[in-house]
Structures are given as C-alpha cells and as structure tokens.
Design a protein that fits this description.
globular
Length: 230
C-alpha cells in the first residue's frame, strides 16, 4: 500500500510539472514520516525514496540511529535552540529557521561538530497566528543577517500554507512566496544560493508545484493518516 501511495504521489508530481512545462526532476519529494514507524520507511527504501522529513528531534534521532542504511533526513518541524546540537550533524536540511537567534545557535553547533549547515528560512506567508515563521517583509533582512554566518548556508525558503478544503485557495500564497524567493535570488547575496523552495503538502502540493515549488513535503498522502491520540 505504501509503495502504491508513493507511486501515486510521484505520478501527480509528474502531471503537475507537465501542466506548467516543468521537468519532474526539478521537484524533490520529501516523505514526511513523523509519528510513523521505522518499518514504513524501510519499506519505501526499496523504491529508492531517500528523502524523509521529521518534526520532532527525539524521533529523528531514534530513526537515524536505527535505520538499516543512510537516508537524507529533513528537519521540518519547529526547532528549539537547545535541541540544535542533537540534529546538526544528522540532517541534510533544516527547513524551519525563523529567527536570527536560532541561526546563531546553528552556527555555533555547526562549528563544534565541524559541519556546514544547510537551511531554509521559514516564512509565515499567510500570516496565520497558529504557524511559526517570519512575516514576508522581514525575510530579506533576516536572510542578509544569516548570510554572514560562515557555517550556515541559506538554500531557500519554506512555508506551510493554511489547511484548506480547496487547494486553489492557497495558490495566492504560493505565488507570493515564489516572488519573494526570486527577488532574494536576484540580489545575489554571498552565501545564499536560493535553489530550494519548499512549499506544498498532501492537500495542495500540485498547486505548489504549478507555482514553482522545488520541494514538496507529503506525509498523509504516502503514509496515511496519523493517530495523534497515541
């Protein structure tokens, strides 16, 4: 069932790309495995899926230690400064950097572990009270400040759009973030490569791709619904 779900998502990505004249290779699929057993990931490894997103530091560390072969881990959940040290040398990409304070801590831990941290700046593009991320107008100055840290490399932007019944309602937010992404890229800031735009989840990833997403984070569409009452 999981492999079938993954295949469906991959097909949808392909169709969304075709609709707007993009190549499917331009879009990276991150399978969001939070709260799902390691056995589910192991099953998908047989298909060659190597990108996995986790929201919780402890869960990511547990899976990192126990998985049968290395994969690319993505920290997509809110990251507290005191937890940075546990994941800094384990993750491919931190999607959720939303303050200079957090970026400073990432720099500090990266130096300690002798690694280079790849990050995305999280933008609360729809300005929802319940979501993490910074407001659009503040993004440029934060990017410029973080770019001064030698061991932290800004690769792009990330957002979580509102949960809506009709994915079309989120198109305006994806357009807005894509424009911001392009504006920052055109500034050619040192240490800022702006090649990753992480937006779109299970209910709206096709619209996100049509609006320029280069990375989508799909959990329920692959692994099924989560039980939050456990």
């Amino acid at each position: 069932m999981l492999k079938e779900n993954l295949k469906n998502v991959q097909n949808n990505i392909k169709k969304a790309c075709e609709r707007v004249g993009r190549k499917p290779e331009e879009v990276t699929l991150v399978a969001v495995s939070k709260m799902k057993p390691l056995s589910d990931i192991e099953e998908l490894l047989e298909t060659g899926q190597l990108e996995y997103g986790e929201n919780y530091v402890q869960e990511l560390c547990d899976k990192y230690e126990n998985i049968s072969k290395p994969v690319h881990w993505h920290m997509i959940g809110h990251l507290q400064t005191n937890k940075v040290k546990y994941i800094i040398d384990k993750v491919e990409l931190i999607h959720s950097v939303d303050s200079l304070h957090l970026a400073k801590q990432i720099e500090k831990e990266a130096v300690k572990k002798g690694v280079e941290a790849q990050i995305l700046v999280q933008v609360n593009i729809a300005q929802e009270d319940t979501k993490f991320g910074i407001d659009g107008p503040e993004v440029m100055s934060l990017v410029e400040e973080i770019s001064k840290f030698p061991h932290v490399h800004i690769r792009g932007l990330m957002t979580s759009a509102p949960f809506v019944a009709n994915p079309e309602e989120n198109r305006c937010y994806f357009k807005k973030l894509h424009k911001l992404f392009v504006d920052i890229r055109e500034k050619n800031i040192d240490n800022v490569s702006m090649d990753i735009l992480s937006m779109g989840m299970t209910n709206d990833y096709e619209v996100a791709i049509e609006e320029g997403a280069t990375m989508v984070r799909v959990g329920t569409g692959i692994f099924g619904a989560r039980n939050y009452n456990k």
